[in-house]
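Hello forum,

I keep getting stuck at the same step: I have a sequence, I want structure tokens, and every attempt I make locally crashes halfway through. Rather than fight my setup again tonight, could one of you with a working pipeline run this one for me? It's a single chain of 240 residues.
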Amino acid sequence: MTSSSLWAIPLGGLGEFGMNMLALRTGDDIIVIDAGLMFPEAELLGVDIVIPDISYLKQNRDLVRAVVLTHGHEDHIGALAYILPELNVPIYATRFTLALARKRLEENALLDQADLREVLPGRKVEIGPFNIEFIYVTHSTIDCVALAIRTPLGVVIHTGDFKMDPTPTDGAPFDLHAFARYGQEGVLALFSDSTNIERPGYTPSERAVWPRLEELCRSAPRKVLVSCFATSIHRIQQVI
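Reply #2:
Ran it on my machine without issues. Output:
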């Protein structure tokens, strides 16, 4: 492996839902993007969760520089508690994502040994030969980012999970200008979320959920019990 080569090594999440983890390596430096788990289907009876195989990272543990998280869903952060004892490296994430990761590590008595580093959308972080800009994207949870990773061979864009929400409930727009800027500069490779890409049409804005929730609550004869993912902060705020 030389500094003039770049390897993208998917360890999970490619062609499947969940367990998202990608390693990028150039020379003697590796960064890991996301560390997610997968909830098993019926064929895995008795199995609670599935996590990525990190044998490659363990074999090259001295080269791993950091784990970078794109957002706080379990399929992107849920395996942290299982890999951190093997790879005790800095973890970079936005404020909300870091709060969720902190809770998971605390539950597993790993928080004291964790090196958690908060990042901001629009800012850059240098990790070895990788210079990473965090780009704000909209999704079904908050504080989500894409990554523009400048490597010795060129720029790699990793979108994380996203939907281009034109009317986000928190007023924080998808940063199309940053993507356009890198498009004009030139991109070596794009690693993009492709969930439901085979389905025609588009995903409605999170704001579209609001009128329907309000209608259901107003028409209910008694109290309303609402259940949703804990990370769906926008929907929880709408219900409240």
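The mean pLDDT is 90. If your local run keeps crashing, start a new thread with the error log.
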